[in-house]
Amino acid sequence: MAEHRYQSWMRYFTPSPVHHRLGLVCLGVGMQHGALPPVGPRILDHHVAIVISKGRGWYTHPGDPEGRRREVVAPALLWLTPGVRHHFGAGPGQGWDESFVDFTGSAVTAYTELGCIDPDLPLVPLTDAGPARAAIARIARSARPGNPLLEVEAAAAVHELLVALRRARADSTADGAPVLQALARDAFLPLSVADHAARHGMTPAELRAAVRRSAGCSPKDYLLGIRLGRAKELLVGTDLPVSTVARRIGYDDPAYFSRLFTRRVGTPPVHFRATQSRKVPGGYAGRVPDPDHPPTIPCSRLSG
């Protein structure tokens, strides 16, 4: 009988009720590699994200009545969802490298609606497992003995993990550019959803489905979020009239823009400017600063 050659490391946690109020809690974390023994068939009462970063194996789709095995090739993600039977295992020989996180919480519903978790896709090919593995490694490091912030640090890393996994499986347009990136580039042009779809070789239905999977909202709402975000920046950082701000973000009717802004933000543009605006010598910077090299004021300017 062949000897299984594999290594496993795992920790399990029991967050308190107050930690559950964070919305997401980590129940366990593990890192394993090699010819791991099969898992299941079994059913869990919580979610598990299994990131396969190297190697290959198999899983059986819960909707397949014949239980046929489907191939898993790294990099890939296996979603285990509550109440759904699952059965999987590493391939023979070298097996695979996996990292996993068990989690639960009220925020899971929102992440599912936003497309970060798709219960209908238990196997998801990834473009890069690195960022997800880095988030899982942060959970593993937080599990050091005596860490008083274990549950909080682990919960924060679960949020990061879900975002990293969503990014690693972003949908693409026909020309290979990410859908959301393409929409953001054209967000301020006076284009309809049909126009945006045509620019990227998609039907409106295909565009709506891709954006719904990627961002959990319609293309119209996604574009509106970008437009209103830019409007806020212009209102806070410049003295441009509201009518000019409206045109800058793609609205020719300033009155319509003001009504839309008020409905979505909760306050009219002029009131938003009055409460948020600050006069900064030197003006507003449009470029995103490098976090490793943030803007600084030379010491000579601070001297008396």
Overall pLDDT: 87
Query: Helix share of residues?
Result: 25-40%
Number of strands: 9
Q: Indicate the proportion of strand residues.
A: 15-25%
Class based on secondary structure composition and strand pairing: alpha+beta
CATH homologous superfamily identity of the largest domain: Regulatory protein AraC
Named CATH topology of the largest domain: Jelly Rolls
Task: List the domain count as a whole number.
Answer: 2
Largest sheet: 9 strands, antiparallel
Count every helix, treating DSSP H or I runs of 4 or more residues as helices: 12
Distance between the termini: 81 Å
- Our Rg estimate from Cα atoms comes to 24 Å
Q: What is the overall shape?
A: globular
Describe the structure.
The protein is 39% helix and 20% strand. By secondary structure, it is α+β, with helices and mostly antiparallel strands. Strands 1, 2, 3, 4, 5, 6, 7, 8 and 9 form a nine-stranded antiparallel beta sheet that branches. The chain starts with 5 loop residues before the first strand and ends with a helix. The model has no long low-confidence stretch (mean pLDDT 87).
